[in-house]
Q: What sequence folds into this?
RNA sequence: GGUCCCAUCGUCUAUCGGUUAGGACACAUGGUUUUCAUCCAUGAAAGAGGGGUUCGAUUCCCCUUGGGACCGCCA
């Protein structure tokens, strides 16, 4: 059995993380079923569709590694086909022109509101042989929706869904300017693209009932539907473009890596036993409809961070280094060529203190910046005794031939004995002098990561 | 308001009638450690409420409550 699915965002705003997850689920399922995953840009809203959003959508998906089959499908290019289908529906008696003016519709809505009853279009023109066609009104085309009976959709995630047909109004398929609406375009395109599985957010559930009627009217095979629960913001509402930290870029700029976000998104609303970490290969093999839950899930930044931390720690250091370079070049200051090798060899300890690439970048500050800024508070910690320790250290350190942990250790130990102090007594002044703060990597790591001259120069500034 | 849906620790979730209700994140405590971390160990933390069905319900059914989605000539 073939498996064709698609992700169909509209370029009327930046793609947020919920959409990304929908795309991921589609893509995973296509891979798993050896099917195809398409990207369709639904740009039939001419007013609001923007080229920049289209680009943002495509680059967001690419960043996560979600690659679509062939070129992206641009819906507006197929409008004439949509219109043809609408005309076909009229001919077949499944659609009709409605001459109600916008004022008339608004009046009806007002009236219903006052009476406290739900507004449904009154189907005035559905069978209007006796009505006079007003000259000054351009008609819209409405689909002749079923009035009686029920429609059942066997949803792959939600199970059997049953709705009374009377709750679906005669929805518009062609606007007064003859342009097709979403219900028509999406249906026609899904059919043309031979989509077998429509996997989308469950805010589309009602649309599936409408669209099914179009498929049936046209005698087309109805695809399988899967409506996945939405992602909620921390406030518990449907994620909107206004929520902060909702677009991919919000995560990229703090140094989240794609593998981690992919894993996080995979586990948001889906599970496989107790497993938390999934390689790409595993997610393709194991992902399924059965594991998708029915209730919406909330975004949790601490989990994203933790997932990122896990991936950073387990990642090949060369690969991590490349990501760090890319990150700093894009969002921070370019890493100087002369510092690259030091950073690379220091990643093995820098990454232990980091949840994000930004953390690594910040922790690398003592390598990247030749002039350290030491806060006055930290400077005040360098008292007479500390200065003596530093002086002694410089003497011993300069005399060292081979610089490694084994040769360094005795120096520190001797200083501890000599000055009757503990490790902190020696380590802290050195760290302040070399890193600029009390916090930082292990003192051996710091010394070994910097070259000898730099260590001496920095320490000499303190005494 | 109408229609539809959902309901296990704070969060993501496991359980598919019988479990001391498990894991992960976050949190707390302790240990390792040269600081901050990492790492390790431990702890606290959940079946919304009420009825049924059943020998037995977190699990099946109903009601209540709470939450959500949809109700555009947007998609």
A:
């Amino acid at each position: 059995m073939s498996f064709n699915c698609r992700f169909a965002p509209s370029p009327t705003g930046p793609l947020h993380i919920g959409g990304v997850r929908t795309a991921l689920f589609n893509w995973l399922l296509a891979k798993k079923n050896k099917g195809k995953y398409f990207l369709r840009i639904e740009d039939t809203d001419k007013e609001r569709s923007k080229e920049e959003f289209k680009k943002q959508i495509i680059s967001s998906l690419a960043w996560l590694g979600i690659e679509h089959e062939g070129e992206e499908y641009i819906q507006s290019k197929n409008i004439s086909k949509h219109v043809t289908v609408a005309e076909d529906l009229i001919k077949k008696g499944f659609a009709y022109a409605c001459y109600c003016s916008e004022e008339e519709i608004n009046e009806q809505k007002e009236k219903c509101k006052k009476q406290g009853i739900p507004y449904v279009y009154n189907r005035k023109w559905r069978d209007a042989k006796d009505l006079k066609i007003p000259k000054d009104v351009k008609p819209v085309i409405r689909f002749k929706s079923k009035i009686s009976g029920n429609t059942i959709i066997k949803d792959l995630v939600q199970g059997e869904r049953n709705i009374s047909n009377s709750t679906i109004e005669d929805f518009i398929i062609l606007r007064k300017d003859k342009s097709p609406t979403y219900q028509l375009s999406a249906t026609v395109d899904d059919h043309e693209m031979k989509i077998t599985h429509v996997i989308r957010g469950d805010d589309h559930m009602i649309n599936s009932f409408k669209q099914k009627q179009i498929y049936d009217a046209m005698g087309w095979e109805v695809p399988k539907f899967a409506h996945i629960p939405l992602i909620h913001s921390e406030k518990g509402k449907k994620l909107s473009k206004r929520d902060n930290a909702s677009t991919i870029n919000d995560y990229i700029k703090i140094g989240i890596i794609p593998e981690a976000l992919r894993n996080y998104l995979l586990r948001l609303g889906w599970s496989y036993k107790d497993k938390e970490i999934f390689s790409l290969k595993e997610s393709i093999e194991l992902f399924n409809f059965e594991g998708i839950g029915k209730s919406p899930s909330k975004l949790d930044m601490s989990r994203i961070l933790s997932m990122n931390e896990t991936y950073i720690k387990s990642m090949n250091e060369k690969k991590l280094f490349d990501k760090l370079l890319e990150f700093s070049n894009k969002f921070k200051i370019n890493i100087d060529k002369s510092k690259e090798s030091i950073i690379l060899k220091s990643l093995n300890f820098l990454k232990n203190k980091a949840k994000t690439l930004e953390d690594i970048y910040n922790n690398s500050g003592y390598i990247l910046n030749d002039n350290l800024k030491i806060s006055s508070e930290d400077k005040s910690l360098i008292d007479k005794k500390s200065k003596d320790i530093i002086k002694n250290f410089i003497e011993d350190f300069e005399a060292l031939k081979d610089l490694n942990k084994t040769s360094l250790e005795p120096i520190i130990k001797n200083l501890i004995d000599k000055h009757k102090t503990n490790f902190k007594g020696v380590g802290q002044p050195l760290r302040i002098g070399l890193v600029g703060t009390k916090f930082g990597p292990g003192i051996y790591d710091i010394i070994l990561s910097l070259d000898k001259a730099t260590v001496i120069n920095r320490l000499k500034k303190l005494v």
About this structure: Residues 84 and 90 of chain A are 10 Å apart (CA to CA). Residues 17-32 of chain A form the longest helix (16 residues).
